[in-house]
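ESCALATION

Customer reports they have been waiting on this structure for their group meeting. Please prioritize. Original submission:
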Amino acid sequence: MIRDMNDNQSKMHDGVSNSLGNQKPPLRGGLVSKFIVRRRRFIYINRREIKMYSKRPLFLFCMIIAPLACIFFFTTLMMKGLPKRLPAAIVDEDNTHVTRIVCRLLNAFQETDVKYVYHDFSEARQAMQERKIYAFFYLPKGLTKDCESSRQPTISFYTNDSYFVPANLLFKDMKTTGALAGLALTRSNLWGHGLRDENVMGQIQPIAIETHPLKNSFLDYSVYLSNMLVPGIIILLIMLTATYTIGLEWKTEQQIKLYIISGKSPALALAAKLLPQTVIYTTILCFMDVWFFKYLGYPCNCGIWKMFGLSVLTVLSTQGFGIFLFGLMAGEMRLSMCICSLWGILSFSLGGFTFPVTAMSPYLRFLAAWFPLRHYYLIYVNLALDNYSLQYVWGSVMTLIGFTLLPLLVLPRYHKAFKKFKYLE
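Update from on-call: job pushed to the front of the queue and completed.
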């Protein structure tokens, strides 16, 4: 897809070269004059870039509409926290006062709504296949008789794991119900043998357990997921937008013009070209921080200004990583965008917020360090949730700064790409 360009193509841009590329600074104040010329080139490329945005609605969608839609979508989707009153059923083949107590106990959980009570196993299985329920609790015939005879009855519960979240929530409630029902029957038998309450509870539960969830005491799914899913999607959009914007110069055959306008400086050309995106995405992420930590009240123990700083560093590091990937591909827009897409999608799995990185293989642990979202997650947890000092996340901060400086390694390839390569269909 890449081949050498004809040197005569550079003659198309002599007008630009005469207006900006060949400006000679005055004799006095050489450094100041060079700075002024570079500033004019920088501003010219900025205006050129903003003008291009106004002609392509795709940029408006990717940089403003899509990130804001993700922010509002995920926060409103999980506004109430954990899903509640999930439809379930009970198969009560025994139909005694004991099984009815178990049914009331299961229905008392917040996440469980016992909508149906069946007397046959096949009816419950058919209801699950028809997606009327996510799980059902099975109480076999003779359960009460076995309990009163001090035998060991068996109760079962079935969940539809095709729906991961509701199935796991119902599994937890049904497992707790089974344990509590067994303890209640044991307590009744001990009472029947004449034991007092303090002696009964000492045998049933010798150690009392108190649970105190830290940092997310309400067990709010939105606090857990939105703070990672939304930044992960925005990071993916930043990489794709950066590589697409740079590659568009080759696709429209304007790379030589940009190269000459910048004074044959790829660093100035890339910095000026991506500055409007940096400002827009930084504003979006800072708005996300205000929305999460001020309006929705998500825990932020470090102060919102540190989260603003993390947002700025995240945008710069992601753009630097995208520029680096594009430079490695020597101007191949399609391949670089495919790699950015793959990198962004893998970051959700290797970021560490769904599966601990420490439990992964050594190769995956090494690979996880190359994802900006992984370091965003570590900084967010240590600062916003745990309120640790910045020294505890200094390694992640320096890694993000390293991502920002990665384009310096591929500037020679950009020189070659600007002068010799062009986009081919």
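Sent to customer with the following note: The two ends are 7 Å apart (CA to CA).
Escalation resolved.
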